[in-house]
Amino acid sequence: MAISYIGVGFLLIIGLLMVPVTMILGKFFRPSKFEISKLEPYECGIEVKDSPKGRISVHFYIVAVVFLIFDVETVFLFPWAVAFDKLGLFGFIEVGIFLLLLIVAYIYAYFKGALRWEE
Amino acid sequence: MFSLHPSWTHLLTPEIALLCFSIIFLVIAGLKGDKNLRKGSLYLSLLCLLFTLFFVIQLFVSLPDKEHISVISTSAGNASLLIDKYSLLFKMLVILGGFFSLLVSQKELDEENAWTGEYFALILFSILGMMVMASGADLLTLWVGLETMALSIYVLAAYLRRKESSVEGALKYFILGALSSGMYLYGVSFIYGATSSIHLKVLRAQLGMMITRGGIENIPFPLAFGLVLLVVSLLFKIAIVPFHFWTPDAYEGATTPVTAFMSVAPKAAGFAMLGRIFFVGLIPLYDILIPLLMLTALLTMVWGNIAAMLQSNAKRMLAYSSIAHAGYMLSGVIAALKAKTDEGITAVLFYLFVYIFMNVGAFSVIIALKGNGEEGDRMEDFTGLFKRKPYLAIFMTFFLLSLGGIPPFAGFLGKFFIFMSLVHSELYLLAAVLAITSVISIYYYYRIVCNMFLKEGVEKPQIREGFLLKSALIIMTVVNLFLILFTNRIFSIMEKGSIF
């Protein structure tokens, strides 16, 4: 039984080795020149505006939760749509109930003002 | 893939009704409303629970005895959701626990000025989860029910979010609860890997086959590992020593009606789930399970009672006493495991029924004492209560005597049936410890009684209860006093909750 997991074991070892090996190999090939812009958080050209330690509105969190509602919805809708033929009426009713519950959650969030920005 | 029982809508009426009710409450909670709307929703939620209870009782009466009907099952015939008298009895207990906790919450919500609609929606959702826990017959359905319950209760435990102790207790509860849920899922993943099924019936068949072929040693290590994690997470949920550390803090921090709810309903649902997993899935393992559970039950009874003696806060004391009571109930489960009869299960069901009335009763007196900026849950708050409010002191005495197991109160009967089932299955050690620790428990229950009657208290402002709390107190007292007259009838109902 354990022999059938040998592939998984290989994958684990390769996965663990991947990062150190590429980092060490990179050390040999890349040129090493110091520039002050390399110390900035983003090296792709966007200039830093202010410290990341500032306070962020808690509202972002609620928006993220609302986003999660829809995200989870699509995650479940996609496999259902793919296997629609096999699941049949049972699956259809189940997804209907699922969507109904999510809509209720959305209505609740809407009435609570989760999507309002002005204070 | 899946097949539904032809009359599934009928069999699942209570769940469907409760789901619709809780959705309505969630929408009401979202609406901007004044205090009157919230007070109205308290009465409405009580009514909804009565309706659900009515549906459950109707199903209970119409169902034949000793029959397990699978509502949802795979094409191979393995049930995922079972409706039988066992699950229906636990559903009744859970609904009763929720009903009485709501009944006593009016005054507390007034005092804290914390009327929100979410309170009712969350209690109804958690009851829905508990009902699924009572009915589930595969490990994942049980887990879905467990999480529906637990997530609602984490939020309820932190209901007074401006109070530090409330948030602290809830956070501890949440972290440890998430840990135990994780352990459950991790264990289930190992069990699934070893048996390629999550259904309890398949698990039982495979375990039985392995053991008849080569004894306990024949169980492969991954499966054994998964089973250990499963059992530990179950014991965690019903707060058995050494997995009890979240209990006192969570109970003390939560608002008192929520504490009352947490101490009765999830415990009943936890025992329903534990019984289902043990008696349907793990029964071939009884040889190892019995000594293991016996050790934890002994520890629970002894430590729960000793720690309760040391508390100076009444809610904390009741938390430790509820740990001890969980130990008594676990001994009933062990008796059923040993004798392989329903006697122990019947005793546990009876105990849980009685426990709702005595424990919620004791908590409701604490709620009555709250007011004028005082919590009312310290031991000193009870001093001289007999002078101030004679009937409140007498009611509290009844509840405490009942919790201690003094005849003729209802708690005595609960302990008596557990004791009998232990003696019948020849577990004399557990029976002796149960008797001795009950005597110890009298000491700390009497500390409150002593404070109420014998000590002179300082002059304090008048206590006001409100109609709902008063009626709840009267119902609990009447049940605690007169249950002994209806012992036969209630016992014969509980006897129908057969799992074998």
Descriptive overview:
The complex is a heterodimer of chains A (119) and B (500). With 119 residues, chain A is mainly α. Chain A has one domain: Methane Monooxygenase Hydroxylase, Chain G, domain 1 (Up-down Bundle). Chain A has helices at 6-29, 59-82, 84-111. Chain A is flat, with a radius of gyration of 24 Å. The termini of chain A are far apart. The model of chain A has no long low-confidence stretch (mean pLDDT 85). Chain B has 500 residues and is mainly alpha-helical. Chain B has one domain (2-495). Chain B is built from 21 helices and three strands. Chain B has a three-stranded antiparallel beta sheet with strand order 1-2-3. In chain B, helix 11 (246-253) runs antiparallel to helix 12 (256-281). The longest helix of chain B is centred in the middle third of the chain and has 32 residues, at 164-195. Chain B is globular and about 75 Å long. The two termini of chain B are 28 Å apart. The model of chain B has no long low-confidence stretch (mean pLDDT 91). Classes of the chains: A mainly alpha (119), B mainly alpha (500). At the A-B interface, helix 3 of A face helix 2 of B.
